[in-house]
Design goal:
Layout (H helix, E strand, L loop, with lengths): L17 H11 L4 E5 L3 E2 L39 H4 L2 H9 L2 E4 L6 E6 L2 H10 L4 E4 L4 E6 L5 E5 L2 E4 L5 E2 L9 E2 L2 H6 L30 H17 L4 H16 L7 H13 L4 H15 L2
Parallel strand pairs: 6-10
Antiparallel strand pairs: 1-2, 1-3, 3-9, 4-6, 4-8, 5-6, 7-8
Helix pairs in contact: 6-7, 6-8, 7-9
Length: about 290
Amino acid sequence: MTHTTDFPRGPRRLALPAHLRTALWLANIGLPVLPLRKGKLPYGNCPACTRSACGDRPQMKAAGPCQCPAPCHAWAAATTDRDVLTSTAWAGAWKQAHAVAYHPGGAGLTVVDLDNAVAVAWARQNLPATTVVATTRGEHWVYRGAMRSVNGVREGVDLKSTMGYVQWRGPGAGSMAPLPDAVRALAVKHPTAAQPTPRVVTVPAPAGGGECPHRSPAYLERGISMAEQRIKEAPDAIHRTVYRMFLAVLSAHGRCGCLSEAHIARLFSAAQGKGESLRHCTDAWDNARTSLGL
């Protein structure tokens, strides 16, 4: 999509669910969109994606949508096709949707997601002025131009563009600027500057409730160590790897009460060492628990 001006100001009213009206308006101006459920999570539109089983990032190695039946999941489901958006496959999703998301990279955009006041202050000192959209905890700075999505480039700063999605929160204010080199440079991982400092884990250990089947602490230790190692050695698809390792640990140890907060802190530390933010670690942990019914 080629942007010549800033975001238009609002959708026309149609006899459709409110979020679908917004989605159709955004699609009409060239933003690929999708519905979000509670917690800013995408709907699973195929068995492989049900209840976030795919980790909310299908086929991260691919350059486009995954091979699930259309419409697919997360950024791969984003579309400007009115027939897809109004199809029976998404009818229930739009009725229950909590929000609308868009795929910035699919529209030739990059969003700098500033998650707190410190990150916003940093952006105002270091990045060129552009369209700014207020969020619950910070701001989205929107630039013309696409790049790869990278989380945790600084504390509280994520880059959302290709293979990523962002909740639509309105057109914002200010004129949209071209994607600057200062933002592109943030995607280059420097061992000392770009890796976020691990923060204290904020999720409680599962309480359990059944008899612990593990006769030796060595079994649990081996499982935690293996998960840590796989996260640290993952060359790409970090979101998906973190989710799958959290899911594997919880599947084996989440019901018997042998997991401690120290064990969880080790997993979070390994994930944060690969660039994941505390927020994304917490989301992945919560998604894994939900998938297992914990």
